[in-house]
Design brief:
With 136 residues, the chain is mainly beta. It has one domain. 7% of the residues lie in helices and 46% in strands. The protein has one helix and eleven strands, in the order αβββββββββββ. The strands form three sheets. It has a five-stranded parallel β-sheet, with no helix packed on it.
Length: 136
């Protein structure tokens, strides 16, 4: 959004995006035959729900990334993988029924911070994994 006005940026920040994992029905299943997005505009509030399919939230492939992003991750029976750019501070809170929430993101010094991701996780028989993009 290089040429976007401040009003356009504000409207993007106020919206909430839902990322849904319903694999047998939509994503590559019976109803969905299209290509997935590569780059996208990230809102300050995201919800990811993995019920019948996995969800990948790639914040590193965003056109514009707010300074702070709040992600509510609901991993019910399936997995959510979150990829962040290098230098992102990650804060993880929430409900862990069987401790299937993990962050492989290294701690960041104060000056090298690229942004803050707050993950409120709700994992039940699913995994929520947060990692730096490009690392295995």
């Amino acid at each position: 959004m290089d040429g976007a006005s401040p009003r356009d940026r504000q409207s993007v920040a106020l919206r909430r995006r839902w990322l849904l994992g319903f694999e047998p029905f939509f994503e590559g299943g019976w109803f969905h035959k299209g290509a997935r997005a590569r780059t996208w505009d990230v809102e300050e509030r995201l919800n990811a729900v993995a019920l019948f399919g996995d969800v990948i939230v790639d914040l590193a492939a965003s056109r514009n990334l707010p300074a702070s992003v709040e992600l509510h991750a609901y991993a019910v029976l399936r997995d959510i993988e979150v990829c962040v750019p290098e230098g992102t501070v990650v804060e993880v809170t929430g409900l862990r029924v069987t401790d299937h929430v993990s962050s492989d993101v290294p701690d960041v010094a104060g000056d090298g911070c690229a942004g803050v991701l707050q993950v409120i996780s709700h994992a039940f028989r699913g995994d929520v994994t947060i990692r730096v993009s490009g690392r295995i």
